[in-house]
């Protein structure tokens, strides 16, 4: 076997695929749930220009998960606590964009440093440490599934309740405030929702690459549509396709799941960007969505 063949076999290995597929049943279910909440939350992340906040929250989510791993308690719960602390701090201290970026810039190295400390103290399997950063394909057991699905349901309920006023406040906050929309309250509530979404996403794609599940699908959808209905639908479809495709491709290989998810997500974005430019040149169509990636 040549070196190229060996590398290819590591990346794509489909021996005993049917037997291995049963091992990731929970991950596939969790992936569908995360694609749904990540795709919907990502719409507002793009509208409100919050990709940097997603990354900042993921660092403290990583710290919380690392602390839970060290103490031998539920990792999802630890990740959620870390995310909510970060989201709450950003929501309270970073009301304005300039303040928000400063707060995130302070929280990111602090959270990453704490996470590295907790992992250095952890004496268990090295795969558990690595998985928090890059994701694990078979990391979702029954207790974690309960946490994941329950938290996903909570996120969906809250998003459903605040969707219309939050969309108004995200598109034109000044006008929304004059119309009596509680802009600041909605902003804080969404930050908490975003914190929960990030915590859930970390379990599958890892803390380092969580942006690919929350930001990239929505950014891709925004390149080809400005419809308030079609935008979230496409964002969810792209997120689910990325994570489910990543899980299925990673199954049986020795490579972590995250490179597969990021590659699929990036490919979708490039295709949507090309399609958007072609449409603009062909028909002169202008996108009316807020700033996108």
Give the helix/strand layout.
Blueprint: H1 3-11, H2 17-21, H3 25-47, H4 51-71, H5 75-93, H6 97-121, H7 126-134, H8 142-171, H9 173-178, H10 183-205, H11 211-214, H12 216-224, H13 230-250, H14 258-283
Helix pairs in contact: 3-8, 3-10, 3-12, 3-13, 4-5, 4-6, 4-7, 4-10, 5-6, 5-10, 7-10, 8-10, 12-13, 12-14, 13-14
Question: What's this model, at a glance?
Answer:
The protein has helices spanning 3-11, 17-21, 25-47, 51-71, 75-93, 97-121, 126-134, 142-171, 173-178, 183-205, 211-214, 216-224, 230-250, 258-283. It is an all-alpha fold. The mean pLDDT is 82.
Overall mean confidence score, pLDDT: 82
What ranges have pLDDT less than 50 throughout 5 or more consecutive residues? Answer: none
Quickly count the helices.
14
Residue share in helix = over 70%
In total, the number of strands is 0
Instruction: Report how far the terminal alpha carbons are from each other.
Output: 42 Å
Q: Which H/E pattern describes the elements?
A: HHHHHHHHHHHHHH
Class from secondary-structure proportions: mainly alpha
Radius of gyration: 19 Å
Question: How would you sum up the major sheet?
Answer: none
Global geometry: globular
Strand residue content? under 5%
